[in-house]
Amino acid sequence: MTKLFAILVIVLGTNTVFAQESGSNTTSETTPAKSEAPKKPLAESAKDLLNTTGEALQDASGRVAQKLDETKIRRASKDYFVLGTYSPVDLLIPSKKGLTVGLIKDASETWEFEYLSGSVSLPWIVKDLGEMTDRRFSLIRRTYSKRNSFNFSYGLTYTDFSIHLGNDIMSRVSGGRSPSLDLVEIETLGANFAIGNRWSFDKNITLSVDWFSWAQPLKVIRKKHDFLSKATNDSDRDDVGKAASVIAYFPRFAVFKIQLGILF
Fold first, then answer.
1. Which listed residue, 95, 103, 218, 250, has the most CB atoms within 10 A of its CB?
2. What does the buried/exposed string (b/e) look like for 138-163 if buried means 16 or more CB atoms within 10 Å of the residue's CB?
3. Distance between CA atoms of 125 and 163, rounded to whole angstroms?
């Protein structure tokens, strides 16, 4: 009896193991292996990236161009403007600041009054000069023709240039000092010319750049230099006299004059 029971256990165990192995083999045979998606070549991926970037840049460029093209429309819809002005590279004195107010006749033409002023205490024309101040008042006609932002401008300019002589020069003056003895003032009338671009954006914010401008004195309308009649030092008198002559007709070139303001 015991032997019969042992034989049954062995037979049943063998069948169970065989069934498990068969099931395992069946599962292994019926489950397909997962396949990986094919990868794009590196060159093709780079090309796709470049195309996407190019499309984004083209879209941004188109939107910017559209905004800039609205300049003429905005200008035509307004009557006046006010602009703050900064001229970093400007002769005779750099870093001039000022204000411009204007009348918009139509989309192709504006009339402007511009004030610019700058001072410097470092003498570079004559040794021992003190502070120099350059004030410029200009009446300007700006014409766009049928263009959107590019423009030419021209007009008249009145210049008031003053020099306060330094203590070294004034210490060599004998016979007493009058209150205006240290002041040399030159007033001139001339013409101006410029080329530039002016754009108007949302809320009528306006940005203008005169790439190149030229204000040329043509006629001296007033000279005040009491120092020349009172100076006893020939060298000082000659230096100040030459400086006044150079300043009177020296061309006032400027580049990259920037204006920012609003139309209304």
1. 250
2. bebebebeeebbebebebebbbebbb
3. 11
For domain 67-263, the CATH architecture is Beta Barrel (2.40)
Q: Is the peptide bond before 165 cis (omega within 30 degrees of 0)?
A: no
Could you give the 3-state DSSP secondary structure of residue 55?
A: helix
The single-letter code of the amino acid at 5 is F
How far apart, in Å, are the Cα atoms of 78 and each of 5, 99, 100, 103, 140? Answer: 112, 19, 16, 9, 18
CA distance to 121, 132, 170, per residue, from 184 (Å): 15, 9, 12
Instruction: Enumerate the domain spans of the chain.
Output: 67-263
3-state secondary structure of 13: helix
Return the pLDDT at 28: 43
Higher local confidence (pLDDT), 200 or 35 = 200
Q: What is the pLDDT of residue 8?
A: 42
Q: Which of 47-51, 141-145, 183-187, 206-210 shows the lowest mean pLDDT across its residues?
A: 47-51
Question: Quick check: pTM over 0.90?
Answer: no
